[in-house]
Amino acid sequence: MSRATSRAWAAARTTADLGALTAQWLEGKLDALPGGSHRGGPDPETAPLVDVLAAVNRAGWVTVQSQPGYDGPAFDGRRWRQRAAVMLLVDTAGRDRLTAAARTAGLLVAEHRAERPGLVREIPVTTWGGDVHTAFGVHFRRRHLRQWFSGCHREALRAVGEAHQVTLADPRWNEDGLLWPLLAAQAAAVS
């Protein structure tokens, strides 16, 4: 991680600051996420989502996981299916706004706080050869969040520890037409 990137993450104090920096990383303006993770930018599958993810982060919500919908062959020829999904760290107003809109739209929702898990423990979002391979919406404790955001100011670490962990996923496999427009509209409404 460059010194400039390290200094930028160390200067962040709030989830809004972290969101703004995450947007810059998505757009290629920072070379790594906190702690030096994900050097070189997002995965290629994320390229079509960069604009909406950057807008969501600039709205003051921090995206920590995302993937597009997909249905096709994996590297080994077995079937690989993905639900469009995102996990965010948000304040109470963001949680209320996003979960209400998501439930109205029929999205799958999981929400947690660092100190206690919510009712939905995880949402399967990727299958490989018919078996669940990846789940979003797993509960993260404060120590996990501190690891993800290592190198950030202690005020930023406190902010992510106090944030709501919200995961939204399309109930359908290989669909991008529900989640991403909903997120774009919600981000635009608060920006």
Can you describe this structure?
It comes from Streptomyces bauhiniae. Residues 5-186 form the DUF6919 domain. This is DUF6919 domain-containing protein. InterPro entries: DUF6919 (IPR054212). By secondary structure, the protein is of the alpha+beta class. It has one domain (3-190). Helix content is 38%, strand content 23%. It is built from 7 helices and 8 strands, in the order H-H-H-E-E-E-E-H-E-E-E-H-H-E-H. The chain has helices spanning 3-11, 15-26, 50-58, 92-105, 142-148, 154-162, 179-190, and strands spanning 62-67, 70-73, 79-82, 85-90, 108-113, 123-128, 131-136, 164-169. The strands form 2 sheets. It has a 4-stranded antiparallel β-sheet with strand order 1-4-8-5. A 4-stranded antiparallel β-sheet has the order 2-3-6-7, with no helix packed on it. A hairpin with a 5-residue loop joins strand 2 and strand 3 (79-82). It is globular and about 45 Å long. It starts with a helix and ends with a helix. The model has no long low-confidence stretch (mean pLDDT 93).
Task: Put the structure in a nutshell.
Helix 3 runs parallel beside helix 7 and helix 4 runs antiparallel to helix 7.
